[in-house]
Design brief:
Helices cover 45% and strands 9% of the residues. The protein is mainly α and 165 residues long. It has a domain of 99 residues. Strands 1-4 form a two-stranded antiparallel ribbon. A two-stranded antiparallel sheet has the order 2-3. Strand 2 and strand 3 form a beta hairpin.
């Protein structure tokens, strides 16, 4: 009997996943589903503006891909545990900027950005990834999971607030 084969390398982010190219993401259906609550033209314009940021040109890096309040445990004001590694892959590091919009407020977001010092394109891709996740989460979970629906609302509000400056 042969031993099991080991993977040749780390798992790459698949098209449509958070570590993959934004060019593979389609949020048109969720935007249409949010039409009674938000202006679809505005959501589309914000999405397309950040989605147009240049692609990650560096080598793929390890990412968690799902860093939001439901997967981060804090003790005494310090991050203590990171949960749910199901999106673990290598890809665009912008995927791990999700907490900026899905967890932190304006001053916290500014401090997070200053500490990580991402370039402008990475920041825009991170914002697009958080926005895309929020746009998809709100209509999907609106009637079934209040926590994840609220996460979607929070992400949409944070991105719109930052874009409005």
């Amino acid at each position: 009997m042969r031993p099991p084969r080991r993977p040749a390398g780390p798992p790459p982010a698949r098209p449509g996943e958070r570590g993959a190219s934004l060019r593979d993401w389609d949020v048109s259906a969720p935007i249409e589903q949010l039409a009674g609550e938000y202006d679809p033209a505005r959501l589309t314009a914000v999405w397309e503006a950040d989605r147009a940021a240049p692609e990650w040109a560096g080598p793929p890096v390890w990412i968690h891909g799902d860093l939001h309040a439901g997967n981060l445990l804090v003790r005494g004001g310090t991050l203590a545990v990171v949960l749910d590694w199901s999106c673990l892959a290598v890809g665009d590091p912008a995927a791990d900027l999700l907490p900026a919009w899905l967890l932190l407020d304006g001053p916290g977001r500014a401090e997070f950005r200053a500490a990580l010092a991402p370039d402008e394109d990475t920041w825009r891709r991170g914002r697009a990834k958080a926005f895309g996740m929020a746009l998809a989460a709100l209509p999907y979970y609106r009637d079934t999971n209040p926590f994840l629906a609220a996460l979607g609302r929070r992400g949409i509000a944070a991105v719109l607030s930052e874009v409005d400056g």
